Amino acid sequence: ATSGIGIETARVLALRGVHVVMGVRNMEAGREIKETILRNNSTAKIDMMELDLSSMESVRKFTSQFNSRSLPLNILIYSSFAVLRNNAGIMATPFKLSKDNIELQFATNHIGHFLLTNLLLETMKQTAIKQKKEGRIVNVASRRHKLSYSEGIRFDKINDESG
């Protein structure tokens, strides 16, 4: 939530009275965004928590900390340009493996999102039961996939520099 659509989504949700929890890789950039939002909307309820979707350890730590706060979870928004608000998307980066030995783009834009959703789904379900209102998981994506291989993701070469 520290650039583009992430900032605007957090700002508008906060403006509408939503308690926003921003999952951010860069805490300093997150603090600047939070301060900007609060400067323009002093009643905004906005928190930041460190989250690196390319790291499964970071995702697990984030979900543990989020769940320990006993906050409701009504909406989870992902943006894969380049997760509560996750804008961790990266694209067209040089080949690199994540800390978990998964190709970095795939780890950040897919595996991290999947794990985060999986670990927070029960919290969202419990919120829906208590509030009698269904939660939402929103995935925002670009058309970048059109530039990929015609046969789609090469899973057999996902961690291969030639893949």
TrEMBL record:
Q: Which organism does this record belong to?
A: Trifolium medium
Q: Name one Pfam family in it.
A: adh_short
Q: What is this protein called?
A: Short-chain dehydrogenase TIC 32 chloroplastic-like
